[in-house]
Structures are given as structure tokens and as C-alpha cells.
Specification:
Blueprint lengths: L3 E6 L3 H13 L3 E7 L3 H7 L4 E3 L2 H6 L5 E4 L6 H10 L3 E5 L6 H14 L3 E4 L6 H12 L5 E7 L11 H4 L3 H18 L4 E7 L10 E8 L2 E8 L7 E7 L2 E6 L4 H6 L16 E5 L7 E3 L7 H11 L9 H20 L3 E2 L1
């Protein structure tokens, strides 16, 4: 595989911001076609790009080795299964699927087809999360006893788009990011307790969640609200050796929306440092510099994996574990009890 031909299914926010620019910026990948009902939108960003009306047409094109599924959530399973049946490697955007059963079906189909399957859990390569991993590995925080992870927004009125009405609401949308990060740090929890609610008048789906992951001697709380005018808090992490508080969101999505390309000068640099407080008497919070974030690392690892030169950047089993926690939280909220895993 000297050059891996890529077909992209969908050109909404995911395809336009998180996939096409990074495929184009990754040596060894070539974006060859996009499935979209709006060819002008695609070609405004990528002049001359082949735009096709359906995944069936895409799969019939020559030179497509890898299919990136960035269609609406409810189509993820069908599109991934079609691509695998056609002998293609597959990247599925998060959420992996709308149900755990569908996620398992996709995983089984990849095994039968002998094709690489991965899920785009890009927030592993956020500046703040990479920084947190370094802090934990260095021992500066001691043994972490509480991770508080937020993904809040200020959207007091629900927009008339499918994402606002998706089944599972913001938990289905943002929960996978927060779950995957917690599992990367601490593994699968013993149990899950969740409160998922709709707080905005007239909102068609849940827009608030507070989910607690239970670990021995540790708790991880995952929180999201669309009614947070002050939505700057991203992490509050407390350990036996200190605390780290981080505000602000990784800058890569905003940079693409502003017209930058991956790898431009200053790429992935988060200018807002977190505050680190050690547990030593008399210490005060001080700024701790961030590592640069870089979603290109996912795509570079994917190329290496497809060439047999490296590991899959997000294993299907890891993505299934995220789906299991996602489903357990929905069950916990519906039944009003803690769900053991």
C-alpha cells in the first residue's frame, strides 16, 4: 500500500472538519471521493473532488481502499457493514453505532472480512488530554482519586437539526469522547450511575448528563450541559499528590473552521495552561504548560497499521467498551439505579 485511496461518506461537520483536512494532510492517504448530496459544498473546499450520491456508487469506484463513515449516527452500522462486505478497511466516526448490538455486528463483520476497523476517538489527541496523561505518568498528581470531565456548551435553544434530536441526545453525541478518555486513563469501571435529562424547554432529546464511573478508590464524573453560559471548565483532577484544573477546549476544531490546515504554524497549541496545585503545605496554584494536540497522530498511526507497520490506533474492543458504558449509563438513567459492568 504505497498510497491508500480514501472514500469519505458524509460531508457535515465531521467530514468537513475532522476527516477530509486530515486525510489530505497525511502522507500515504489520498482522498478520492466523497458521498454528499451537496457537491458544490465539497468542491468549494476540494476543487475537482469526485462527489457521488451514495455509498453504493462509492464502493463501485476503483482505487478505494479505506472508507471513512461520517454519516448521521443511525447510518453508521449500515454504511460500515456495506464497506466491510465490499472488502474495504473502515474508520467509523463516533459514536461507533446507535446500539451496542450494532457495534458488535460491525466488529464481527470486520473479523470475518479480515479488514481493519477503527473508530475515530480523536479526543485522545487533544492538547489537554495529552497533558493530563503526562501529569499522571509523571506522578505529579499522585494517585488520582477523582476525575471531573466536562463538555458543556451554551445553546439555550435547540436548533432544528438532526443532531439535536438524535436518540440519546448529548450523551450519545459527547458521552463517547468523555468515556473513551476515562477508559484510556483507568480502564473499564466496575459500575455506572447516570442522570440524563432534558432541561431546555421544547428540546427534542436529552441535553444534560451527569454520569459517575465507579472504580475502586476512585470516581470519574462525566458531565455535559447545553445550558452552561460559563462553559469553560474542561477538567478538574484531584489526586493524593495534587490537583490540576483546566479550562478551555482543544483548539484544532476551531482552527479548521477558521480556515487553517493541519500542520500550519502553531498547530494544536492550546494557549490556556491548566493550573497545577501540589499537596505540599503553602503551595499555590501555578500554570502548567500544555502539550500540543494533534489529530494527525491518529491518521499517521492508521497508515502504519494498514501497511502492517504499527498498531491500530483505536482497537474495536476499545470502542466496544465505550459503547458498553454508553449503554449502561442510559439504562442507569432509565431505571434509576447503578448498573454493574
Amino acid at each position: 500500500m504505497t498510497e491508500i485511496g480514501v472514500g469519505l461518506v458524509g460531508y457535515g461537520l465531521g467530514g468537513r472538519v475532522f476527516h477530509a483536512p486530515f486525510v489530505a494532510a497525511t502522507p500515504g492517504l489520498r482522498l478520492r471521493a466523497v458521498v454528499s448530496g451537496d457537491p458544490a459544498k465539497v468542491q468549494a473546499d476540494w476543487p475537482g473532488m469526485a462527489v457521488v450520491p451514495s455509498i453504493e456508487v462509492l464502493l463501485a469506484l476503483p482505487g478505494i481502499d479505506l472508507v471513512v463513515v461520517s454519516s448521521p449516527d443511525h447510518l453508521h452500522a449500515d454504511h460500515a457493514l456495506q464497506a466491510l462486505a465490499a472488502g474495504k478497511h473502515v474508520v467509523v466516526d463516533k459514536p461507533f453505532a446507535t446500539t451496542l448490538d450494532d457495534a458488535r455486528r460491525i466488529t464481527a463483520a470486520a473479523e470475518v472480512a479480515g479488514r481493519l476497523l477503527t473508530v475515530f476517538h480523536n479526543r485522545r489527541w487533544d492538547a489537554d488530554f495529552l497533558t493530563l496523561q503526562d501529569l499522571i505518568a509523571s506522578g505529579r498528581l499522585g494517585e488520582v482519586v477523582h476525575l471531573d470531565s466536562h463538555f458543556d456548551r451554551w445553546r439555550p435553544e435547540a436548533a432544528p437539526v438532526w443532531k439535536e434530536a438524535r436518540e440519546g441526545g448529548s450523551w450519545q453525541d459527547l458521552g463517547p469522547h468523555l468515556i473513551d478518555q476515562a477508559l484510556c486513563l483507568f480502564g473499564v469501571p466496575q459500575a455506572v450511575s447516570a442522570d440524563i435529562a432534558t432541561l431546555r424547554p421544547g428540546a427534542p432529546a436529552p441535553d444534560w448528563f451527569h454520569v459517575v464511573l465507579h472504580y475502586p478508590g476512585r470516581r470519574a464524573t462525566l458531565h455535559g450541559s447545553k445550558l452552561a453560559a460559563d462553559h469553560g471548565l474542561r477538567f478538574a483532577v484531584h489526586g493524593t499528590g495534587g490537583s490540576w484544573i483546566k479550562h478551555g477546549l482543544d483548539p484544532q476544531e476551531g482552527a479548521i473552521l477558521a480556515g487553517q490546515r493541519p500542520g500550519d504554524e502553531g498547530w494544536g497549541i492550546d494557549p490556556l495552561p491548566g493550573l497545577l496545585t501540589t499537596g505540599e503545605p503553602g503551595t499555590t496554584p501555578g500554570p502548567h504548560p500544555n502539550r500540543p494536540g494533534d489529530y494527525r497522530l491518529f491518521w499517521q498511526a492508521l497508515v502504519a497499521a494498514l501497511r502492517g507497520e504499527g498498531a491500530n490506533p483505536v482497537l474495536p474492543g476499545e470502542a466496544l467498551a465505550v459503547m458498553e458504558v454508553l449503554a449502561a449509563a442510559q439504562r442507569s438513567a432509565a431505571e434509576g439505579r447503578t448498573i454493574a459492568l
